[in-house]
Design brief:
The complex is a heterodimer of chains A (358) and B (124).
Chain A (H helix, E strand, L loop, with lengths): L7 H20 L4 H6 L8 H5 L4 E4 L3 E2 L5 H16 L4 E4 L5 E2 L1 H16 L4 E3 L5 H9 L2 H5 L9 E3 L7 E6 L4 H16 L3 E2 L1 H17 L10 E8 L4 E8 L4 H6 L10 H9 L4 H9 L2 H5 L9 H10 L4 E13 L4 E18 L6 E2 L1
Parallel strand pairs in A: 1-3, 2-4, 3-5
Antiparallel strand pairs in A: 6-7, 7-9, 8-13, 9-10, 10-12, 11-12
Helix pairs in contact in A: 4-5, 8-9, 9-14
Chain B lengths: L6 E5 H4 L16 H19 L2 E5 L8 H13 L5 H7 E4 L5 H24 L1
Parallel strand pairs in B: 1-2, 2-3
Helix pairs in contact in B: 2-3, 3-5
Classes of the chains: A alpha/beta (358), B mainly alpha (124).
Amino acid sequence: MKKYWSTPKHKASNLRRARKSLDRRCGYRGPRSAQVSYGRVKKPTTRSTKRAGYTLVRAPRVFSLIRNPDAVVAFIGELRNCLDSRAQVWVVLKEVTDIDYDAIVVLLSAMVRFKSESILFNVDSPKDRKNRKLLADSGFFENLIKSFSPRDNYDLERAGSNYISTHGQKIVSSELSSRILFEASHTVWGEARRCLGVQTALVELMQNTFNHAVPKKEGERHWWLSVNHDETENKVRFSFVDYGVGIFESLGSKSEDNKFYGALNWMFQKFKYRNNAELLRLILHGELHKTITDEYFRGQGLPGLLDCLKENWFSNLHVISNEVYAAVAEDRFRVMSSSLIGTFVYWEVTPQNVSVPN
Amino acid sequence: MLASQTKMRIKISQDFAFAPGPRYIREGLHSGEEFRREMLAPAVREAIETKQIVEIDLDGVAGYGRSFLEEAFGGLIREDHIPHESILGAISIISNEQPSQRDRIYNYLKTAHEKESQKMASHT
């Protein structure tokens, strides 16, 4: 009699059993090399699963509003579009080769804005070790796992060398700014001193956000202030940002009952400026303020910034608003390829700047 | 100012706030409006009535927003309707830490006087 295992019936049954066994063994997905050798279909990697459902927004390689304003402003615009459409965002930082402190306030404020709206916000780490450390020192990763509810005040602080403290508020808080400057003076001069002009600038900027960030509404938007203490260079860097409508949008959208209504027309008739970069220069030199006839006493915030720079209370002043980038200290004003819906101001305080004893 | 005139004194850092704030009360704490209403205007009025001088010491604070000072001093003319000449005769500003503030304040007073006079003239 022919042996059973040599019959075609047994061979067919044995093949079915072997296939079922193979399926079972491959079901747990085992080592990828084994799956490939068995000719299995390649499954998605864990990393892409993590990012599934997120909109990827790539940060510019040079992530600095001062050195690369066009690209960073475009990046902020992408984040804003995602926020407006409530799309969850994954910020790709791994390709960033250079990150400056001024970009940290952009990331931190974006993170809080997304999280307070209950929209998922995530990032990956920069590959570069120095950039990764800079971001970690800002407390960014610690805050990334926290939840934020919508509120008027946010204080994100982190101790350590080269630390960054970031604050978000809606009203003018002169006490907060004086406390920040008290700490800054220790970093810059090694003792408590008062930086009168810096306090002037901060109060005026907070007030501008309160009054002009949203047309016809006061105290609607947060201002964000990020302060980096560089203890090796005895330097403190200030980055102030608000996500209102920006200086030129704000001026253009004033209603008839507003003090600035028609101001752009008067300015144009008087100075025939070619673009908003030239207009910003005129505003900083107080020309807009001079044209206001009714509420003549308002509109002194931006000219005050330039005066404080001239009086050497701080250095290296930069202003970005809408499509205008201004390195004010170098008197460079230009129109950018992208537009920031909001206003960003940066300056530094060093031992060469003026201060008075406490 | 006559040598015989007695002085009232307001030191903002001690009598009002170390960190003076924005222009209006609604914008935040320690505003120029609050300072003018609660402290400066009553003191200036009293000084005018009693022929005294109010010495306003700006030193010792964290720093002033322009709007704070404009509202506090320009507002004396604009809101409290105290005549420009009377104010000039009743106040004395001390600002050793930021001497430019003194000129700025007198300029605010002058501008407020001129603009309010223009407004009055156009209404009549």
